[in-house]
Amino acid sequence: MSRLRVVIEADGGARGNPGPAGYGAVVRDADTGEVLAERSESIGTATNNVAEYRGLIAGLEAAHEVGATEVDARMDSKLVVEQMSGRWQIKNAGLRPLAAQAAGLVHRFESVTFGWIPRERNRHADALANAAMDLAAGKPPKPTPAAPTPTPAAEPTPTAVEPEPALALAGPDATARAREHEVAAQASTARTSWEPRPAATATRLVLVRHGATERTVQKRYSGRGDVPLSDRGTAQARATAGRVLALAPSVAAVVSSPLSRCTTTAEEVARALGGAPVVTEADLVECDFGAWEGHTFAEVRDRWPEEMDAWLASPTVAPPGGESFVQVTTRVRRAVAALLATYPGETVVVVSHVSPLKIMLRDALAAGDAFLHRLYLDPAGVSVLDVWPDGGIAVRTINDTAHLSGI
């Protein structure tokens, strides 16, 4: 299958906020900078943020229409970039349906990243948005400015804020800057985390690791292989269902990785909850361990010693033919953002694997990358965290296994 990498440049605005509003979006070939599609529309009276989200949505739709497989979405709206990257919560209820729509479009591509660019780097989309705002305000259209001279969109963008800056920047100084940015982003959304909040406004995520499989017992890497639950794992799933019922007798949905060891666990939980809907989410699948799939840690250490050392040392390194933790983080944050946008103030059970669940807990605790190799999550263990619209997070439980006694 042919692969097409594109860059989306999107913008939106309103004259008055709210006021006459419009958006613009440009899709470029990531290698040549060639413009593949343009979108622009007046949307009546709206806010800047609504228009910006509409621009992103239009850009994603256009990218899908031209056959893109990988997308780098760039905007000068820090709010939209941070919210779609899963670092900032969506406080405005009016933006949540738009964020959910954008998250749904993201799933059409193999990969999507979001990055911030200064306004001067977004002139083409900005011009389209301004023309649309003129139309919304009833002004005669101005001559459309010539598009900037195409340059390869893959050129470095030093000022861009990527979801995982360590991917785009090299060297120890860059890694330090990336971590500083991540900590600053977390602090900006959670600085009031000790203030009392009404529990009813939080979205509660009940995180469940699937039950045991034969590979669990043998301590083998189990990533994308669809290994079913063992008899013990099925018993664990049923016990976990009872524990979840005690923690959350009413849930909006049970959201699961599509692999059968998770969907079977999710179905047991949903049955205990009286038939709650089970929704599969591809972004919750386990890390792709590539050539290491099915091998034990000792076997990998023996056959791929240098690759193993590099993988343990950096989340940007992937197993041979596999996926890095940075790549897993991008899609897991995307999944969490979609959950928070879709189920605000409700309880959702999330059934997934070790790596995605560790990443969620690492982010919730604002921990470093070493956390991924130090936290242990048992099969069928339960963790609970609450997320408030203002960015506050409370981690209630990590790896609760009391319900598994005797199994």
How would you describe what is shown here?
InterPro entries: His_Pase_superF_clade-1, His_PPase_superfam, PGM_Phosphatase, RNaseH-like_sf, RNaseH/PGlycerate_mutase, RNaseH_domain, RNaseH_sf. Its EC number is 5.4.2.12. The chain contains 14 helices and eleven strands. By secondary structure, the chain is an alpha/beta fold. The protein has two domains: 5-163, 2-Layer Sandwich (Nucleotidyltransferase, domain 5), CATH 3.30.420; 199-404, 3-Layer(aba) Sandwich (Rossmann fold), CATH 3.40.50. The strands form two sheets. The protein has a six-stranded mixed beta sheet. Strands 3-2-1-4-5 form a five-stranded mixed beta sheet, sandwiched between helices. Strand 10 (382-387) and strand 11 (393-400) form a beta hairpin. Helix 3 runs antiparallel to helix 12 (325-342). The longest helix has 19 residues, at 172-190. The relative contact order is 0.13. Mean pLDDT is 85; it is low at 144-193.
